[in-house]
Amino acid sequence: MRMNKDVTTPISKEVKRLYSLSGEVCFAYTKTTLFKVARITYELFEDESYQYLFEPYYDVVDGLEPVDWGGIPGIDLTLRKDCYYRVGVIPTFISERTPSPNRVNLHEELRSANLDHLNRLQWLINTDTVYTGDKLIVEKDGFNNFSHISTRSAQWRALSILQLLGMRLPIDIQGIHFDDSERSTLIRAYLLEYEFLATKRRVNQDRGQMEARERGVYTGRKPIEVSIPLLAEVRDRLASGHITLKEALQVTKLSKATLYRRFNELKESQNK
């Protein structure tokens, strides 16, 4: 294996490349609204050396300022590089959200991801496990989940336009074509519009609920009941890596925020 002390210097083109796999890093603004923020590539060479490449999509990244999306762990986007290399090392982005080679239940994880050996980038592409530290996921190269611009309401229209912009597709909005150089400006504008409309809707809902309470006709949403033994089992299995966060949410039928709140309540009750 080629030894390289500088993990940011790409492997020479003279070394024969045996394998290459690419995916797209996406920021999940909502469950269905994703923004492609970078292309990620894993390359393996004949001397067993390897490297990861991150190629940011600045036309999208620059538009995400209003939501403070957090960036890509381990990658300093302020350097504005066209490509960031990580040579002979597992990048932070990969290591913190994929199983390690010595993981106890590695075979189970590989089987669930439809893999016969550990390829960490392929594992990310094949699974929809969400890392608790951010809202970044990896989709296959060329992924597209945009269907059409919604006319359901102003809020849904803004969100569907954000889906179009986030997929880095040609920008045609109501018969008007925009240049790709305008993508980041449009993302900022529609993010602000959507956030305003969503906030306005929540305020109206809260006002309506308050008025309903005053009239005695609103009782709130009934909490989902999860037994303490089941909650404890899910917590322990999640902590040990025997189940994923997605599986824990499916078993308990809770949201992520509610699940972790219940975990904290369980811990407090057990410490009394």
List the helices and strands and how they pair.
Layout: E1 17-28, E2 34-45, E3 50-56, H1 58-61, E4 84-87, H2 92-95, H3 106-112, H4 120-126, E5 136-140, H5 154-166, E6 171-173, E7 176-178, H6 183-215, H7 228-240, H8 245-252, H9 256-271
Antiparallel strand pairs: 1-2, 1-5, 2-3, 3-4, 6-7
Helix pairs in contact: 5-6, 7-8
Structure in words:
The protein is α+β, with helices and mostly antiparallel strands and 272 residues long. It has three domains: 17-140, no CATH class; 154-215; 228-271. It is 39% helix and 17% strand. The chain has helices spanning 58-61, 92-95, 106-112, 120-126, 154-166, 183-215, 228-240, 245-252, 256-271; strands at 17-28, 34-45, 50-56, 84-87, 136-140, 171-173, 176-178. The strands form two sheets. Strands 4-3-2-1-5 form a five-stranded antiparallel beta sheet. A two-stranded antiparallel sheet has the order 6-7. Strand 6 and strand 7 (176-178) form a beta hairpin. Helix 5 runs antiparallel to helix 6 (183-215) and helix 7 (228-240) runs antiparallel to helix 8. The radius of gyration is 22 Å and the shape is flat. 21% of the residues are buried. It comes from bioreactor metagenome. This is Resolvase/invertase-type recombinase catalytic domain-containing protein.
Question: Which overall shape is indicated by the principal axes computed on the Cα atoms?
Answer: flat
Q: How many DSSP-defined strands?
A: 7
| Derived structural class | alpha+beta
Percent helix, as a range, is: 25-40%
Summed over residues and divided by their number, the pLDDT gives a mean of: 88
What is the number of domains? 3
